[in-house]
Write a structure and sequence with these properties.
This protein is α/β, with parallel strands linked by helices. It is 39% helix and 14% strand. It folds into two domains: 6-204, 2-enoyl-CoA Hydratase, Chain A, domain 1; 207-269, Lyase 2-enoyl-coa Hydratase, Chain  A, domain 2 (Orthogonal Bundle).
Length: 284
């Protein structure tokens, strides 16, 4: 599929999405948003995809919203109904990633500012180039954090660090991001994608895709649970359903026979409902 502002590649069950406006440091536009939504839908629907990598072309990851419209960038004056709250496109993207059935690795190859930082928060693992710089700069532009980051960021790094970064709006270096728990590891820029690919292939080559998808859903949703009993219920249902699966039989047989497993179950076949009654609130 041809895109205007991103590129995609599928190799060895790893689907790489590259933000592709290098002349603008991959600044965010509505076209980029639409194409990212399409790409994540494609990744979700394709059983050949077992892990996703997101990175940027050129020197940057994403420099935030494209500010070519100047002071009108965030006014949404083209919205026909002044009394209707238009949905934040960054939030629509992060909610889509939250609901994904494939694990996502952010390879932050350069500046990641504003939406360039917040879009990575629902991704499962973030790694960064040693010279990357990151900023939640919203208060310095007279706006507030978006893309559901008021939910994601404190859960990723803790409330104190999240408020420091958000209240100052300063851009900080990759070392501080590592120390704060925002990124998992730092790499020379020239080996960043290789490191992301190694991790993605470890998932793709060794793990049962349905089990990974179900574990991902359980982990993220349990961040909002009020008691560990809810996790116990979900774990117990998950063990019952997956323990009876063809994947479980294959995983045990492969271990006993000292060979690589070939898991037959497909994510496209659906995931068992281990959290009955859970539903996302409606927007409004």
């Amino acid at each position: 599929m041809e895109y205007e502002q991103i590129t995609t590649e599928l190799s060895d069950h790893v689907f790489t999405i590259t933000l592709n406006r290098p002349d603008r440091l991959n600044a965010w536009t509505q076209t980029m948003f639409s194409e990212l939504m399409q790409a994540f839908d494609r990744a979700d629907a394709d059983d050949e995809v077992r892990a996703v990598i997101v990175t940027g072309a050129g020197r940057g990851f994403c420099a935030g919203a494209d500010l070519e419209r100047g002071g009108e960038t965030f006014t949404k004056r083209d919205h026909p109904d002044a009394d209707t709250i238009p949905r934040d496109s960054g939030g629509r993207l992060t909610l889509r990633i939250f609901d994904l059935t494939k694990p996502v690795i952010a390879a932050i190859n350069g500046p990641a500012v504003g939406i360039g930082a917040t879009m990575t928060l629902p991704m499962d693992v973030r790694i960064a180039a040693e010279d990357a710089r990151i900023g939640f700069v919203f208060v310095r532009r007279g706006i507030v954090p978006e893309a559901c980051s008021s939910w994601f960021l404190p859960r990723v790094v803790g409330i104190s660090r999240a408020m420091e970064w958000v209240a100052t709006g300063r851009v900080f270096d990759a070392r501080e991001a590592l120390e704060g728990g925002l990124v998992r590891s730092l790499h020379p820029k020239e080996t960043l994608l290789e490191a992301a690919g190694t991790l993605a292939r470890e998932i793709a080559e060794n793990a049962a895709p349905v089990s990974v998808a179900l574990a991902r859903r359980m982990m993220w949703r349990m961040l909002g649970a009020e008691h560990p009993m809810l996790a116990h219920r979900a774990d117990s249902r998950g063990m019952l359903y997956r323990g009876r699966s063809a994947d479980a039989a294959e995983g045990i047989a492969a271990f006993l026979e000292k060979r690589s497993a070939v898991f037959p179950d497909k994510v496209s076949g659906g995931l068992p409902d281990v959290m009955p009654g859970w539903s996302a609130p409606e927007f409004g």
